[in-house]
């Protein structure tokens, strides 16, 4: 969990921009609910490396005190510090990349006190198009980071090219599964053209929230505490182009799918509404649950109505509880009935808690029914997601039985 400069500021960053964000994490209470990384994205670089040593240099105008000084200041706030580079000759913003300079860059990052590296995929010199090529390129930096002896979270950002979920778990902590997110909720933007990630040759950018969810849906089995994490890209909450319900849905689904929760808004100019969304402790707890299993999409339509209108997701938690989310991806108010038996839940009855309304969601069950019947009647606004935490009423008995074995 943390914050990254790119979604809001792009290349318009400076020492003041980054330090102000770090201070805001503390002053707004975000640090207190788990946000700990402050990450500089692209464009921190000087025009070139050092002519003699070839070490990476920071832009002397944007970062006059240097990266090490900035890292020390962020660490003094009890936070961790991240940086960006690229597994190519240049970064996506046209600065120098790390391809061929992995050892010296990793060593420098460790000396600066870096705790997190986002590693991009632009200008990769043709070293992609197969899992072997991509693996070798990203493994080179993984090995260089390991040699430094400093624990640095390694976040691969190759947009899902060459299916990193199948090979990155052995070398990285997380991997991007799609092209860059854009501050829109739904739609298939022409700049984000791929229907099937496995056959994609142009991953693009300006990807909507629902587009990324479609790509993430079949990948839940690849992620977990030992394997690593599917990264659905940084959060857009608070950047202004989506509605309240859309941002709630965005934040909820990123949390349920165990994607890293990396904020991308201006932390120094947040509305109360934005802050209330990104500090929902119950939703954050789902994301940070020790079991670490991403939710599964049970189905994308209910009773065959308006294919894609409703998405139903179910996840398991370390406590034995379940988390259930229902998303209305249509642009209109929608009412439907969800039969309890359709969910295939392992227990007969549950007590439910609504994680956004923050209230008792009722008593659900095949034996006792929901409001007297075995079904849930849903009334959802356009692009609204409702999320419940379900506790099996017979969980206490089950735990006692397990303890007695």
UniProtKB/TrEMBL annotation:
Keywords: Disulfide bond, Glycosidase, Hydrolase, Signal. It is an enzyme of class 3 (hydrolase). It catalyses: Hydrolysis of terminal, non-reducing alpha-D-galactose residues in alpha-D-galactosides, including galactose oligosaccharides, galactomannans and galactolipids. InterPro entries: Aldolase_TIM, GH, Glyco_hydro_27, Glyco_hydro_27/36_CS, Glyco_hydro_b, Melibiase_C. One of its GO terms (molecular function) is alpha-galactosidase activity. Its EC number is 3.2.1.22. It holds the Pfam family Melibiase_C. PROSITE patterns: ALPHA_GALACTOSIDASE. Residues 308-390 form the Alpha galactosidase C-terminal domain. It comes from the Eukaryota. One of its GO terms (biological process) is melibiose catabolic process. This is Alpha-galactosidase.
